[in-house]
Structures are given as C-alpha cells and as structure tokens.
UniProtKB/TrEMBL annotation:
Keywords: Glycosyltransferase, Transferase. It comes from Enterococcus faecium (Streptococcus faecium). Pfam families: Glycos_transf_2 (PF00535). This is Glycosyltransferase EpsH. One of its GO terms (molecular function) is glycosyltransferase activity.
Amino acid sequence: MNISPLVSIIIPVYNIEKFIAKCLESLVSQTYKNIEIIIVNDGSTDKSPSICRSYAAKDNRIKLINQKNQGLSGARNTGIQHITGDLVLFVDGDDWLDDNCCEVLVKEQKENNSDLIIFPYVREYRDKSYKRKLFTKDVLTFSDYEYKEFYRRLVGPVEEELKNPSEIDIYSTVWGKLYKKDLLENKFVDTKKIGTEDLLFNIMNLINARRVKYTSSTYYHYNKTNDISLTKKFNIQSYERKKQLIAEIENFLIRNDFDKKYQEALKNRKILSIFPFIYMICNSTLNRTEKIKNITYIVEDQFNSKEYEKFAGNIKYISNSWKVFYFLLINKKSKPIFILVETVTKLWRIKNEKGSVFNTLFRKV
C-alpha cells in the first residue's frame, strides 16, 4: 500500500440539482488531497450535469462520466469500472462528508492494512440532526469472531438483536464504509430485479474481508430532506422484488456453505421486512378495500407464512411497541393489522406533523 493511497470516491447523480453542489464541495474540500472523484451522471434532465461540469472544470481530480439512465446500481457499477485508487468510498450525490473524512479513514486503514473501515452517520433533517454511532466503542478492531457476527448481522438479526426491528438495515449501506478495492469482485445487482442493491452487494463482497475496523472520528451526512413522499400508489412489484432479494441472499448462503444460524438470520430478516410494505400500503392512495386486499396477499403469502411458526418463538425478544404487530402478523390477522398501522401512523402524524412517520416507525438506517 502506498504511503498516501489514492481514494476513489464514486458519486451517482440523477436529478439532484438542489443538493449536488454541497456534496461536491465537501469532497473537493477534503483535508486529504490524494483522491479521485468519479461522478456518474445517470441521464439527469435538470441542472445537475452543468453543476458537475463546473466543478470538473476547476478540479482535475474530478472525472465526469455521462450515461443514459441505468438506475442507481448501473451508475455505481459504471463508477467502479473507472476507479484507479486502492481504496473506494461510495457517496450519494445528495449527501456529504466531514472535511476530514478521507484523512481519518486512510489513517485508520494504514495502521493494519484494513480491508474495510466502517464509520457512523448523521441523519440530516431540515431543522435538526441526529448522530448515529454504530457500536458502543469509539474505535473497534474486529476480532475474527466479532467480524463473523457483524457479517451474520448483515444477513439478519437473531435473538436480542430483534429488539428493535427498525434497525434491521443499520449496517447494510455501502456508504459509511471505506473498501479496499480488492474486495469489490461483485457488481451491484439491478434494483429493478431486487429493489435495493446495497445489502446484497455487501454480503457478496465482504465475505472475504479479514481486517476490519470501526471509527467514530468522522461522519457521513445522510440527507433526509430529499426523501420522496411515501403517500403514493402502491406497486406490489416492490414487494416481489424484496422476495427476489431474499432468494438471492439465500442462494448465496447455500453456495458458500453457511451454517443454520445464517439461515435463521435471513428468515428473521424476511419477517421483519414485511412491516415497511404494510406501512406503504396503509399510506398509499388505494381505497380501504384494496389496502386490505394487498395486506392480505402479503400476510398470507406462503413465502412468508411458512416462517411464522418458527418466528413466534422470537416475539419475546421484540420490544413491547412492536409485539402487537408481529403477534397479529404470525396469526395472519390482516384486517386488524390494517387498523393498527393506520391508527398508529395517524397518531404519529398528529404528534409530529413536520417529521416523517415512516422515519420514526421504521427507519431504513
């Protein structure tokens, strides 16, 4: 590894003219200078490309790649094809980094030639910010056992980890991680196939990580002001894509001979992943009859229901605020589930009109 390794930063960009300048400003202002900034303009139709061109004209560390729209996974894959650095960061174009981020991460990485450095994030709302540390220690060098547990936690939670279902994906994102380039052997799978690409990408690529560290000395800033309203038409295909994601992970575990604990973790993920879809249905423009019909389809789907009996033994681990929902779920009580989720979301909306109910109830991260 070089004394000052080159860090490749990949930024997918699609119609984020309000946010991209702040993102790029945080990158060109990094205290660690040996970086390349790979911007992939994924067919933007707003002013994002011109803003990116302006920054590229002023800083020769910026590579601007234009392509027809391929979605987030396609844009990130294009970025990976153009990296020349030894280390890789993913940054979404509406987010930003602390100015010292690359300096801190490279320093930590060089101490033991780490394969992966994990760092925490800040959820940035319009009028407030919430820091989210990922571990109790400020700095953590993973033992072999600790990393195996972390990797298994990526697949899904078990036992006491089930306490707060809202934290199911707290480690899943590709941002908030500095990767050694050699780890990245697998591409992102198209979101049109699996719905969300970060989790599968990490499971497939982090299987070979051996030297892993965590530091809370710098933060990723996750922009929550750009969330798209969740009040919209519900498309059952989003649920079918989630099923495909679970199937892809299951096949990967089988191919690589993972033991039963990983299979149990994935089954728990399958059940915990049902709530976001129930919420989206309740908060959609569907009428009451259609909402209950879609909820019933998901609740009674054999893909899920075959796991209910086993999951019943896990309800004791779940926090009291979630127990009623999962009790109704494993007993296939679709209409009561609809009434419960609709009532709770209405109450939260009254209590917190300026905030997102979904973020409060079931944060992605």
